[in-house]
Amino acid sequence: MARAVSGPLTYVTRAEWAPLVRRHPDVAETLTLPARGENLRGELGTLVAEINGRIRPTAVLDWHGVPLSRRLAAAVKAPVKVTYPKYAFARWILATFGVDTLPAENLRIPALYARTAARWGEVIPDDGFRLAVDAAVRRKLITTLALEDGMAALAPGARHAAKRWPAGHWRALIKLLRDRGRRVLLIGSAEERPLCDEIGGDDAGAVNAAGACAVGDLPELLAGAACLVTNDSAFAHLAPLVGVPCVDLFGPTSPRFGFAPRGSRDRVLYLGSPCSPCSKHGARPCWRARQVCLEDIRPAAVFAAAAAAGGFA
């Protein structure tokens, strides 16, 4: 994203994401948020004191809009404070009643971030931004994990189980890829490693890299893949940063919430079932005997989308 203000940028985020944020060339310093529920007399108060005493920001931009970030922004002393339009109520209306009152433009989150930042300076979303890939780290991962360029990357996990495409569908997709000579790279957190084993354990050509590298090295792990297939999860937002086209599978959540990738080679598969979306973040278990919103996204359709996005047949 193009710079809207002069001077160094300090970014405050969760500890697990800090290694990725530190890689952005415009971020001078990264600070980490305390646990949820912290009060201003605890770690949150210490963070506020450091920001007010040492950093003394001229502007605060809340790009999260949750209670903790709002409390932090309110406590920090700065002449300019803005929060991006989250449309939380409109998302809730859509998820609860199926009534879509979101803006007709169907803006993706980066565009909303850009419009918010524009309130104190000119800024546009930079679709061409890429994280620099550390060649030495990439070579090390290639050696230790037996990677190769052109693999199909699959991310079968998600924070909530209801957002996960069925394991059997993932296995069928792997077979389609294998039959066409495409090796598979399974990625995810350490907690998702058993899921990746379940999905790719029978394929000798599949590499289970879930939890195999630090969060800060995920760009090097994903770089070189022909395409990424993922549930509605964080990996859908990492892929564009390393130039990897993405196929994003939506079921209980909706692309209308703004979290779908938006690159020219990215693909979104969403059936728009009558009962979908059923929650804002996919946390609610499916009440139906069969989760049609994801089960009816067939492996052949996903393979076709991945082939088109990744340029392989």
Structure write-up:
The structure is a single chain. This protein has 313 residues and is of the alpha/beta class. The chain is globular and about 60 Å long. The mean pLDDT is 89. The protein contains 12 helices and 10 strands. A 6-stranded parallel β-sheet has the order 7-6-5-8-9-10, covered by helices on one side. A two-stranded parallel sheet has the order 1-2. The chain has helices at residues 18-21, 43-55, 67-75, 88-97, 109-117, 135-145, 167-179, 193-200, 218-222, 235-238, 292-295, 299-310; strands spanning 9-13, 27-32, 59-62, 80-83, 152-155, 184-186, 206-208, 227-231, 246-250, 267-270.
List the total number of helices.
12
**Main sheet attributes: strand count, strand direction, barrel closure:** 6 strands, parallel
CATH architecture descriptor name of the largest domain = 3-Layer(aba) Sandwich
Give the class from helix and strand content and strand pairing.
Answer: alpha/beta
Q: How many β-strands, per DSSP?
A: 10
The largest sheet has its strands arranged as 7-6-5-8-9-10
Low-pLDDT parts are none
- At the fold tier of CATH, the topology name of the largest domain is Rossmann fold
**H/E topology pattern:** EHEHEHEHHHEHEHEHEHEEHH
Beta-strand fraction estimate: 5-15%
* Alpha-carbon Rg, integer: 20 Å
Gross geometry: globular
Q: What is the CA–CA distance across the termini?
A: 34 Å
Mean pLDDT: 89
Query: What is the count of distinct domains?
Result: 2
